[in-house]
Amino acid sequence: MNRYFCVIGSITYRITTTSDNFAIEKVATLTDDYITGYGGRGANQAATLAKLGGTVNLIGKIGNDLFGSEYLKALKDLGVSTKFIEIDKNHPTGLRLVSYKKGYQESKTLLSLGANLEVTPEYLEKQSSAFQGTSVFLLPGELKLDTMYFAKKKIQSHNKTMLFAPCLHLVPPFEFLKGIDFLTPTYANVKQITDIDVIDDKSALEASKFLLDKGVKHVVIKAKDGGVYYANKLEAFYCEGYDNVEVIDPTASDEAFNAALGFALSNTGYIREAIVFAQAVKSYVSSKVGAVASLPSYEQAEKHHRSKVLNIREL
């Protein structure tokens, strides 16, 4: 089985709090506790792949600070290759501050990308050897647009599979979507890109057709109810989620899904099996506290996978 992966950015240290209510202007809000940990859309996906047993290169930048040095050690301990991570002496490690209301259904986030903004096309060109021998690339949408265009072009020049996960603070232009192998947006991402609310099968098919017409090859929409809508030019279906598992902390669940999807595609090549496995990993991560700390090994993911048979409905 081919398990060689490359993830391009981003790396952020994470501080998470929970409270009864969000802070309001000029008023301090007491929190029950806070958790520090490792995050970033790219780093979370790289960590997931490594925990599942993949061989992973992560391309990115961190600051010359305590957050960065701690993170570098953590990635190495997880088995992620840090050969292509550079310490930037002029910018801090990226930082994400997340405030959840109790129950984890509502959150507010402050994100400082820091050194991630220095992952430029020129920097990626310097890391060209990371592209060799890799069959699956994961590109989170948390980098500058010119960097993502360059990364996309470089991946396509190697004729390799690419998974692109957009983020809410940077909406990709339609031109960028052309030729994307797997687009893995949340329902909120889809609303931003297409102006379509994915609330049922009909709207999911409408949004999927819109994205396919823009040149995306496979559309994988993470629905609000925890299920997944999939479509390509030939078929479409809905895969339910693990409603038998309590959601404790969804912090890294979307990134874990993306990584697990790429992992399964590299091993089986069957989209239905890959989505079911990715759903299992997402559910497992959501049932634990923390981002990297909640990631499963392959054996743990498989055990969770077998805890419920997910129904797939043709559309």
Which tags fit this structure?
single chain, ten-stranded mixed sheet, 10 helices, 24% strand, globular
Description:
There is one protein chain. The protein starts with a strand and ends with a strand. Strand 4, helix 2 and strand 5 form a beta-alpha-beta unit. By secondary structure, the chain is of the alpha/beta class. The protein has one domain: 3-Layer(aba) Sandwich (UDP-N-acetylmuramoyl-L-alanine:D-glutamate ligase), CATH 3.40.1190. It has a ten-stranded mixed beta sheet, sandwiched between helices. A four-stranded mixed beta sheet has the order 3-2-6-7.
Based on the structure given, which CATH architecture is correct? 3-Layer(aba) Sandwich
Q: Note the main sheet.
A: 10 strands, mixed
**What percentage of residues falls in helices of 4 or more residues?**
25-40%
Q: Give the radius of gyration.
A: 18 Å
Compute the number of helices: 10
Question: Approximately how much beta-strand content do the residues carry?
Answer: 15-25%
Flag low-confidence runs: none
CATH topology: UDP-N-acetylmuramoyl-L-alanine:D-glutamate ligase
For the record, give the distance between the C-alpha atoms at the N and C termini, rounded to a whole number: 31 Å
* Strands, total number: 14
Strand order of the largest sheet: 5-4-1-8-9-10-11-12-13-14
CATH class type: Alpha Beta
Mean pLDDT: 89
Shape label: globular
- Tally of domains: 1
CATH H-level superfamily title: Ribokinase
Q: Specify the structural class.
A: alpha/beta
